[in-house]
Write a structure and sequence with these properties.
The complex is a heterodimer of chains A (747) and B (330).
Chain A (H helix, E strand, L loop, with lengths): L22 H6 L14 E7 L5 E7 H5 L4 E6 L28 E2 L5 E7 L2 H10 L1 E6 L25 E4 L2 H6 L3 E9 L11 E7 L2 E6 L4 H11 L7 E4 L14 H13 L3 E4 L2 H7 L6 E9 L5 E12 L13 H4 L4 E10 L13 H19 L3 H7 L17 H12 L11 E3 L2 E13 L6 E6 L5 E5 L8 H13 L6 E4 L16 H21 L9 E6 L1 H5 L7 E13 L5 E11 L6 H20 L4 E2 L6 E2 L16 E6 L22 H13 L10 H16 L33
Helix pairs in contact in A: 9-16, 12-13, 15-16
Chain B lengths: L4 E4 L3 H8 L5 E4 L5 H7 L6 E4 L8 E3 L5 E4 L4 H6 L1 H6 L1 H8 L4 H6 L2 H5 L25 H4 L22 H7 L3 E6 L2 E6 H4 L18 E7 L8 E6 L10 E10 L2 E10 L6 E2 L1 H7 L6 H12 L10 H22 L1
Helix pairs in contact in B: 5-9, 11-12, 12-13
Classes of the chains: A alpha+beta (747), B alpha+beta (330).
Chain lengths: 747, 330
């Protein structure tokens, strides 16, 4: 340590709660978002989207529009700059939707057909709405349903292995005393970050400069460079503040349109999406139809786990909602089978949305586990203890750390689970039936290569440069804590620069990989700087900078099952007259490695849990079969939980050391949502005695199901034998429903 | 967005004169619905006449016990007014069940009555809609309609009226006052919203260019024991999938007077007169309530996805009348 740097050793910045560095700027409005940063000579672009779901553009009548006040240009497939979509980006081939205005084909309702650029946003909008586009309409198909004959099994990708098999599932099902065979569906869901997508592009001294809202400025810069055949060094992308992303903020048509327009007009151009446009341009979560078959011994030990999930994709790009992957991690079974099937429809391409795969998949699997617990007469938590694997159930690899049972133990203690009467439909308070439910959660703990630089400044402060994206999570603050902790200095002496592609490549804020990836790079650089400072000597005017690149270290990581885990608990009340479901309590306990900033981590967990509640009870985008577009694609028509829906929520975590791991930080961005919908659905069953296998659990569905259950009960048919639902026999009989008469995905 | 003119009116006759007979002019109250519709292109007015400054913001108890509510009274002020809460509690409850605090601070009584349906086809100008664009068709009948009408609808339109307040006003026989260039007029709420028939685009019986100036609630002692219950798909900030305003007077177990109006089941607040007729003079029992509900809902016509509303409204009628009966006996 040298006197010149003024270092005083401060221990334990990691794990101390710290409010966001930029919090004051955000709440006072000083923080400028991508749609607000001022530029001289700024022009405004407005996207015009197709109103037909399939066909060809016959004509774009731009003449009259060009004569409207303030209109500068109209870009469309007849005149737009050419781009190249035949490239390999950081996360694979680009979604062809970024190749806007390149041809006359319309593959879905809401495809960009023109950009009107004008002096003001209002003029651009008025002109875009006046623009007449003629189409040759072709018949479309947007009908997603279970058991479509044209479903297919996609090829493996670096992201998703569509099918895994271990052992003989059919033989194990035959040998099982108890079988659950049930189908679950989840609807189309949309991200809807508070800040709509926005980008401003301009040419600045021969460089393309884009002010954007995204999850990774290196990523978007690289994609833009390839798309426009530019030298990567001549593209700069910044995204200082991001008002939520959730998987939806990569490269989308608006950035491409802004770059095209600034290239044509040679002045800065801004394109901001409307809420309605976001429903077709930025991706969404595919609806799913899932079939789960569980075979178990009478005591609940799993013999077979079969999870088959069908989702949709567009006709132009393949995206797999990997709903069936979590069983590969969660439960031991003698035989395992997981399968993903896709249907190609005339709809926009889905994309990652908070806990892609695990969110809808956990609704199905964790509901099925609850049904198995009911049939076996085993407590749902005891059932999970009974099926806890030693190693990866399919891979056989060791876990880097696995503390899901500790989550259940701590959660059960806090929730008062031990006092729970497992019988359904017994607790009533006035017009409300009360029930409780639980579910497990898991999400992969991945990592991506990143570079970082940490500088000791002559004034005794430190500057960290890491091209992270703070999508509202508190990433900037987390990196500050990581650097301060490693350097052993007061966090107030550290500043962090993020969200600028000129900083150098780094992992995106996605897949719960950001904090782990960036912290690794920052730790290495900060450690090296600390060692160099320890040698003594003065700090030159330019400071002393240590750099890192984690690519090699990541490549050397041993193969392990690396995941975060959790246990979700819910208490619900169901109105017997109206079918309204209200969540009274939520508790989530997580095992997610080192928690860097407890304050913002808790926010992330709670945010995920609220989304899980929203998914369970509210969220659903409705597609009109006739037009092929949405009905009510805005925040009036697409419901998510309001404040009044959100009850007392508690989120906490157990110790989760990761032996031998270089950073011991896992991701926490996704896991909060995983399992929540199942915990709530299981609680609704506990309250009412009726299983809900279709999300969201709307009042009309609760009312219908209750009517149906009553009718069947009076007819002498036991509850729980609803059509399309469980077909397994009762535990005591050992009988087993077979076949796939319900039209299961993959059948 | 189309450029539009903006004028502020300071007296009623001035406001009426500014609108004149211009079909492209609109009165602007709180703007909580109209401005949204302008953003989506459903409304493209050339002129807005702001009526919020008109001297119509008073609530007065009339000598006969009735209540006179000015058209520019905000939802917040209406719900908070002591006379409303005391004499017509269901009205205060209905208003508070709608929107959010911020919206209620802006929204006005006159505008509330003139709210447009939130049918997802009506609000999307790229779709057909007989209400918005007469003769273009109704895609909701064969499309998304799980929150559409079961009473009084037609093949031309199955949209529902979105107002909570209007449901309570219907139960209490409100009379709507208006002003035109030819002088003032009045309409009972019963005739204010015409049947859908084959003219769903005609949403009220107000004369062209008329300005709503107020609402009068006749004296109704039964209203003092009233309640509003709203069912929706989330706990707040959503339109009803079913709602009910009920008032009940019971003596010695016999129904002396009853008021029932249903929301989110028709293109208008639905006064349940068949149920009321059956109840008056009969026993205040669960069986009688259920029979009355069945009588009212006998006319219901359900489509594939909104049939649950029959069960829902039956349950609501029985539940609210039962609660009111229990209140009487306390």
């Amino acid at each position: 340590m040298t006197t010149t740097t003024g270092i005083t050793s401060v221990a334990g910045a990691i794990g101390s709660g710290r409010t966001r560095v930029e919090g004051r700027d955000k709440v006072t409005g000083a923080a400028r978002y991508a749609g607000e940063v001022p530029f001289a000579e700024l022009a405004h672009g407005w996207l015009m989207l197709s109103t037909v779901a399939r066909g060809r553009i016959r004509s774009v009548e731009d003449g009259p529009v060009l004569a409207m006040p303030g209109v500068l240009t109209v870009l469309h497939h007849g005149n737009a700059p050419r781009v190249d979509i035949d490239y390999m980006g950081m996360l694979g081939r680009p979604n062809p939707i970024v190749g806007i205005f390149q041809h006359d084909r319309v593959p879905f309702a809401g495809w960009p057909v023109a950009l009107v650029v004008a002096e003001t946003s209002e003029q651009a909008r008025e002109a875009a709405e006046a623009l007449v586009v003629e189409y040759d309409v072709e018949p479309h198909d947007v009908a997603f349903r279970a058991g479509r004959q044209d479903a297919y099994t996609p090829e493996s990708t670096p992201m998703v292995q569509p099918e895994t098999e271990k052992g003989d599932v059919e033989a194990q099902l035959d040998a099982s005393a108890v079988v659950v065979d049930a189908e679950y569906t989840t609807p189309e869901e949309h991200h809807n970050p508070m800040e709509p997508h926005a980008a401003t592009a301009r040419w600045d001294g021969g460089r393309l400069d884009v002010v954007d809202s995204n999850q990774g400025s290196s990523w978007v810069a690289n994609e833009l460079a390839q798309l426009f055949s530019l030298d990567p060094a001549s593209v700069r992308v910044r995204s200082e503040h991001v008002g939520g992303a959730f998987g939806s903020k990569g490269l989308s048509p608006h950035q491409v349109a802004a770059v095209m327009a600034t290239t044509v007009l040679q002045r800065p151009v801004r394109v901001v999406l409307t809420r309605r446009q976001m429903f077709s341009l930025i991706g969404y979560r595919s609806p799913t139809a899932q079939r789960i078959r569980l075979g178990a011994d009478a005591d609940g030990r799993l013999r077979a786990l079969d999870h088959q999930a069908q989702s949709l994709t567009s006709t132009v790009y393949e995206f797999i909602e990997s709903s069936a992957v979590l069983g590969r991690v969660l439960y031991d079974a003698d035989a395992h089978h997981t399968l993903h099937r896709l249907v190609r429809l005339d709809v926009p391409t889905p994309t990652w949305m908070r806990a892609p795969g695990e969110a809808p998949g956990s609704f199905a699997l964790e509901s099925a586990l609850d049904e198995l617990a009911e049939k076996c007469g085993v407590d749902p938590i005891a059932l999970r203890v009974r099926n806890e694997p030693e190693t990866g159930p399919v891979s056989g690899l060791p876990f880097s750390s696995r503390n899901v049972l500790a989550c259940f133990e701590e959660g059960a203690r806090r929730f008062g689970w031990a006092d729970r009467d497992p019988r359904p439909g017994l607790r009533r308070e006035g017009r409300w039936l009360i029930g409780t439910g639980t579910a497990a959660a898991t999400y992969p703990s991945g990592v991506g290569p990143s570079t970082a630089a940490v500088t000791a400044e002559p004034d005794g402060t430190f500057t960290v440069r890491i091209n992270a994206a703070d999508v509202g999570t508190g990433a900037r603050t987390a990196m500050l804590l990581v650097a301060a902790d490693t350097l052993g200095v007061d966090p107030d002496s550290v500043r962090v620069r993020i969200a600028d592609s000129d900083i150098g490549p780094a992992m995106i804020a996605g897949g719960s990989m950001g904090t782990r990836s960036w912290a690794w790079a920052v730790t290495i650089a900060a450690n090296e700087l600390r060692e160099r400072l320890a040698l003594g000597g003065g700090i030159p005017p330019e400071g002393i900078t240590a750099r890192s690149d984690t690519a090699e270290a990541i490549g050397a990581l041993s193969k392990k099952e690396r995941h975060s885990f959790g246990a979700q608990f819910a208490e619900v009340a169901v109105d017997v007259d109206t079918g309204e479901v209200r969540v009274r309590r939520l508790l989530g306990i997580y095992a997610a490695g080192t928690i860097v900033n407890p304050l913002t981590a808790r926010s992330q967990f709670i945010g995920g849990m609220i989304w899980g509640l929203s998914m369970a009870l509210h969220e659903e985008a409705v597609r009109d079969q006739v037009s092929g577009g949405h009905v009510g694609p805005d925040l009036a028509g697409y419901h998510f939980a309001a404040h009044a829906d959100v009850p007392l929520i508690e989120a906490d975590w157990v110790d989760d050391p990761v032996p031998g791991d270089p950073v011991a930080i896992k991701g926490i961005g996704e896991i909060g949502i995983v399992g929540v919908a199942a915990a709530i659905a299981n609680a609704v069953w506990h309250a009412t005695g009726v299983r809900h296998r279709e999300l969201p659990i709307r009042p009309d569905r609760v009312l219908r199901a209750a009517d149906e259950a009553r009718r069947r009960a009076t007819d002498g048919i036991p509850v729980g034998m609803e059509e399309g639902g469980t077909r397994g026999g009762p535990a005591e009989g050992g009988a087993r429903g077979g076949g796939a008469e319900g039209g299961a995905p993959g059948a | 967005m189309r450029e539009f003119g903006y004028e502020r009116a300071f007296d009623v006759s001035g406001a009426v004169a500014l609108i004149g007979s211009d079909p492209d002019a609109r009165f602007l109250g709180g703007g909580t619905n109209l401005v949204d519709l302008m953003k989506t292109g459903v409304e493209r007015p050339a002129l807005l006449v702001d009526v919020r400054e008109l001297p119509l913001d008073r609530i007065e108890l009339e000598r006969d016990g009735g209540l006179r509510i000015g058209a520019t009274v905000t939802n917040s002020d209406l719900a908070a007014h002591p006379d409303v809460r005391r004499h017509y509690p269901a009205l205060a409850q209905a208003v508070l069940a709608g929107a959010s605090g911020q919206l209620r601070n802006m929204a006005t009584v006159g505008g509330n009555l003139l709210q447009r349906t939130r049918c997802g086809y009506f609000t999307d100008i790229s779709r057909p809609c007989n209400r918005r664009s007469p003769g273009s068709g109704c895609p909701a009948v064969g499309g998304e309609h799980h929150n559409h009408a079961i009473l009084g609808a037609s093949e031309h339109c199955i949209a529902t009226h979105p107002s909570d307040m209007a449901v309570a006003l219907a139960a209490f026989d409100a009379v709507i006052s208006y002003e035109t260039a030819d002088g003032p007029g009045e309409l009972p709420i019963d005739g204010f919203y015409p049947p859908v028939g084959d003219t769903p685009h005609i949403e009220t019986t107000l004369p062209p260019g008329a300005l709503i100036t107020g609402v009068t609630l006749p004296p109704a002692p039964v209203a003092a024991r009233s309640r509003y219950r709203k069912v929706r798909e989330r706990a707040s900030f959503a339109f009803a999938i079913g709602s009910i305003a009920g008032a009940l007077d019971v003596e010695d177990g016999v129904v002396r007077e009853v008021r029932l109006a249903l929301g989110a089941v028709a293109s208008m607040p639905w006064r349940a007169r068949a149920a009321e007729r059956l109840l008056v003079g009969g026993p205040a029992s669960a069986e009688a309530f259920a029979a009355a509900a069945d009588a009212e809902l006998a006319a219901a016509e359900a489509l594939p996805d909104n049939g649950y509303k029959v069960t829902l409204m039956r349950n609501l009628i029985v539940a609210v009348l039962t609660e009111l009966t229990e209140e009487v006996s306390r």
